[in-house]
Design brief:
This is Carbonyl reductase [NADPH] 1. The protein contains 10 helices and 8 strands. By secondary structure, it is α/β, with parallel strands linked by helices. Strands 3-2-1-4-5-6-7-8 form an 8-stranded mixed beta sheet, sandwiched between helices. A hairpin with a 5-residue loop joins strand 7 and strand 8. The C terminus is likely disordered.
């Protein structure tokens, strides 16, 4: 049976470079998603001479589109052997309120990953690999409040409990008191920490089925920085593809840094980001 890979979120600079590199090294069929159809078909036209690539339009916040993707793969009697989820919300509308920015960010970087996992992980193959793309802000210590850090990193934390914690953050943001309560003022940091927490939850749920799930920091890459060269994104893709294709199976349920090292989630962000 043909190996099947899925790259979610291929429209960003990083996502495109991950997909482009994958087409040169992956032996099998590669599906990829973007939210915008025109973008997706342009990418497919660019890459289809390199490998067996197929575009599927999908919005991680829209359940119907995720189900459509799942049915497309199921109808061909395929299962996913490799999943790279590079989805990320990038705020472009400066007119929205802070609370709305929090809502939109979490709808993608947190709730989107949870819902996607529920709908798509059941069609993963045995021993599949999953890579969730996080970032340097995903270190637990970027959240200031020690009690919040303790609760969110509880190894027995359930999904319902994690959702409740994130709802507390949303409520604090609506009231404008998230800094006072120790969440900090970076929406991206909180969302990346929550994404890592989701990854560890998914690992605990699926590891006994042989599925290897990790999250990765590809480096200090902003999807909005068009000034960055292709070389920067090619470098960022390396750690993602290392986890996807080369890492030993003993690396599972971990946060992996851009230099391929497994990082303790509660590392000091200032030490790790500046010395690694």
């Amino acid at each position: 049976m043909t190996n099947v890979a899925l790259v979610v979120g291929a429209a960003s600079n990083l996502g495109f470079h991950v997909l482009k590199k994958l087409t040169t090294v992956y032996k099998g069929k590669i599906y990829f998603t973007t939210e915008d159809a025109a973008t997706g078909y342009n990418i497919q036209e660019t890459l289809e001479g390199n490998a067996d690539v197929e575009f599927i339009q999908m919005d991680i916040t829209y359940t119907k589109s995720i189900i459509k993707l799942r049915h497309h793969i199921q109808d061909l009697d395929e299962r996913i052997d490799l999943l790279i989820n590079n989805t990320e919300y990038v705020a472009t509308d400066k007119r929205i309120t802070h609370a709305e920015k929090v809502r939109r960010t979490l709808s993608v970087n947190f709730y989107g990953y949870i819902n996607f996992g529920k709908l798509v992980y059941p069609i993963l193959s045995e021993n599949a690999r999953v890579v969730n793309v996080s970032g340097p802000a995903g270190l637990l210590a970027t959240i200031e409040n020690e009690d919040i850090r303790r609760r969110i990193s509880d190894p027995y934390l359930t999904e319902d409990e994690l959702v409740a914690i994130m709802q507390e953050y949303e409520e604090a943001a609506r009231k404008g008191i998230e800094k006072t309560e120790g969440w900090g003022m970076s929406v991206t940091a909180v969302s990346k920490v929550s994404l890592n927490a989701v990854t560890f939850l998914q690992h605990r749920e699926w590891f006994d089925k042989g599925i290897v799930i990790n999250c990765v920091n590809p480096g200090n890459i902003s999807t909005r920085e068009g000034r960055k060269t292709a070389k920067v994104y090619e470098e960022g893709a390396k750690a993602i593809l290392y986890l996807a294709l080369e890492a030993p199976l003993s690396i599972k349920g971990n946060f992996v840094w851009s230099n391929y090292n497994v990082i303790e989630w509660n590392s000091d962000p200032y030490v790790e980001v500046t010395t690694v």
